[in-house]
């Protein structure tokens, strides 16, 4: 067999390299089919503990809730929640469809939502804002109130505890602005927040909730300049890349505009939800965007 010269081998290898660079890869082809470019969330390092409760497609037994909710006041999480949610499986969708009776006669049964999902990563999530807006998804309509609680690891009593009106429609993303309620997050402090449905105040074993953890990390001046100079529709990319998941979600949840713009934001939020394993939220947004 004739041995090729070093020069010939060099030409051959260059051709192979050029072919490999120019050849289309499956991932690129798949991305090309999507008309909307999507942000990529880069989680902060060393945050591998599971901290979110709710949102995954697996379930936890209802019996677990009886152990912690019985005997607690409406601020059931005070001083205790920080212990049970860390490391607990984030799949708290419960598949719980049994209704409860309204009124003494029990003439009307109201079906509980099947799951409630904080729009947050499974681990501790970061925000660059001292007064962020928090979002959570409720799978179905709920005629009663939803109790919203924010706990600080530095305080025994909740930082915030209010009641919100439940969603009137199925598949609703709800929000709560900490700025509206005068709540400021302190740098480096962990806050655990809850959205809770209390169907029976006398029997707290039926409480249904979702929770997540947030921390304010002061952004670098250079990052703030990038955000200020970036178009609003592109800020979600910067937030996601910097690890500020809460801000990335906020930047694609708040803006309103044309149908095309609304569809774009929904698809970007669906992508972020998928990246932190919130399949039901992603499915909801894609359905609302008309892509399913």
Automatic annotation (TrEMBL):
InterPro entries: DUF928. Keywords: Signal. It comes from the Bacteria. Residues 1-27 form the signal peptide. This is DUF928 domain-containing protein. It comes from uncultured Desulfobacteraceae bacterium.
